[in-house]
Amino acid sequence: MAATPRFRKNAVEGSAAEGNANGRSAAEEPARKHPVDEKLPPLKMFTSGLQHVAAMYAGVVAPPMIVGPAVGLSAKETAFLMGASLFTAGIATLLQTLGFWRIGARLPFVNGVSFAGVTPMIAIGKDRGHDGIAVIFGAIIVAGLLGFVLAPYFCKLVRFFPPVVTGTVITLIGVSLLPVAFNWSQGGNATADDYGSMTNITMAAVTLLIVLALRKLLRGFLQQIAILLGLVIGTLIAIPAGITDFGALGDADVVGFPTPFHFGAPQFEAAAIISMCIVMLVCMTESTADMLALGKIVGRPADERTIEGGLRADTLGSAVSPLFNGFMCSAFAQNIGLVAMTKVRSRFVVAAGGAILVLLGLVPVAASVIALVPLPVLGGAGIVLFGSVAASGIQTLATAALEKGENALIVAAAVGIGLIPIAAPGFYHAFPEDLLVVLDSGISTGCVVAIVLNLTFNHWGRTPDAKPGAEAADGEQPKDPMALPVAH
Fold first, then answer.
1. Contact yes or no for 354/91 (Cβ under 8 A)
2. 3-class DSSP state for residue 126?
């Protein structure tokens, strides 16, 4: 009898040791947290969150910077829109990362102003001033509420995203973002005299080399914030080069609050609502793909419930944003690249970034400090960030059994069509403007093509005597309809 307890103790210890070797300890597993739920020390939390903000800042302020002047707002009113967009992006990011009830993906998922809505918003509000903004806000509110209602149904599309589809979409996300980095590297403003100058491109190249060198030479936490360090060093080098603009820092207010309905009560026009509802569906499609990509990267595959929560946060954030003078919110794929590169998977890090965004929206002078980073510097770092997303997609495609059936053909057609808006921006110029909302998004078109072709070649018309297990190899779903395709 005395030997039995020792045997059981040793067996448990052996099992635990074996479990630890495999990363799964039966004794410790209940107490261990997934890296997504891990809380880092405060300093690491803040600096890693600030790194996310630095990576997304230009993307958040660019849409209001474009839409404001187009609808007839003054420079000061446009600056107000930019601060409001930072504030609402922070709220949406907190909804995604922390969540409540069944709202939020609870992944390191960053939300910000969607570029998909820029063209429709300009068409809605062009030269209408405050009335144009009010109509835009009314349409976004309705579109956000509609998306919130549709989220439980839309999330079921996850079963149509096996590796052959997710790998294609993730690759397209990264490739579609690279032109943004190239544009930043040239200066960001195609009408500027120094756009594409040797100074700008050299500064981007120097920043890229700095980031690569820091990733190679540093270790531990410093290696994880190599992007942030690269942006700081690049900005300091850019000062004597004369491409750092301190004007925004001098003009910014110390404290400011995005007063609700600053531009008047929202107005509701049918045509505007229809247009923004289409944009919302596009954003939901892209967010679904982004959540699948992020789930793969952090080791917590996004199931239907995760995607439902993420879409609810997206759409609720969009519906609430106009109350504080913000625009439609959606996923920011560039931050997925940052997660892939740094390996910091904690959602609380991104939540810290969301809190920083809220602070930047309330303290304009703090926002202007982040804005000191020249776009060429941001572009050099962006090449690494966005390229990391594409690399993750290629890694996923490596598990998609491209040698089986027509999987390689699916990838070829979807990637080819998805690259059209990038390689030939005016390709769809003769199509109706409403269709351009979808067609001008290579991510959306490539995603739709990949899904349809996967259904055509791997589902419809398959013979009933297909070998067991062939479904997974050919890109089909497991027989369990709730099983995740990304887990193949």
1. yes
2. coil
Distance CA 128, CA 388 (A): 41
> 365 — phi, psi (to 5°)?
-65, -30
Q: What is the DSSP string of 233-301?
A: HHHHHHHHHT----HHHHH--SS----TTTT-S----HHHHHHHHHHHHHHHHHHHHHHHHHHHHHT--
Tokens of 196: 């594409």
Alpha helices per DSSP H over 187-225 = 198-217, 220-224
The dihedral sign for the CA sequence 340, 344, 348, 352: negative
Q: What is the pLDDT of residue 255?
A: 67
Are 190 and 221 a contacting pair, CB within 8 Å?
no
- Answer whether residue 344 shows pLDDT above 60: yes
Candidates 15, 164, 117, 133; CA nearest to 70 is 133
Task: Compute CA 10 distance to the chain's CA centroid, rounded to the nearest angstrom.
Answer: 47
pLDDT score recorded for residue 110: 86
Q: Parallel, antiparallel, or unpaired for β 111-113 and 329-331? A: antiparallel
Q: What is the pLDDT of residues 59-89, one digit of tens each?
A: 787 778 768 777 887 767 777 888 888 899 9
pLDDT category, 149, cuts 50, 70, 90? very high
Tokens of 105: 């993906």
For 274-330, how does the pLDDT look when each residue is reduced to its tens digit (9 = 90+)? 878 877 887 887 788 788 888 888 888 888 888 999 999 999 999 999 999 888 888
pLDDT for residue 363: 78
pLDDT of 209 higher than 90: yes
**Alpha helices, H only, 328-423:** 333-342, 347-362, 364-370, 375-397, 407-418, 420-423
What helix, strand, coil percent values describe the chain, rounded to 5?
Answer: 70, 0, 30
Closest to 263 measured CA to CA, from 80, 117, 90, 116? 80
| Cα distances (angstroms) measured from residue 207 to each of 46, 59, 244, 338, 370 | 22, 19, 14, 16, 16
Under 8 Å between Cβ of 145 and 134: no
- The pLDDT of 230-243, averaged and rounded, is 86
Q: Place 367 in a pLDDT band, splitting at 50, 70 and 90.
A: low
Phi, psi of 266 (to 5 degrees): -60, 145
Q: Which residues contact 331 (CB under 8 A, 6 or more apart)?
A: 109, 110, 111, 283, 286, 287, 290, 291, 314
Between 87 and 480, where is the model more confident?
87
Residue 398: which residues within 8 A CB-CB, separation 6 or more? 167
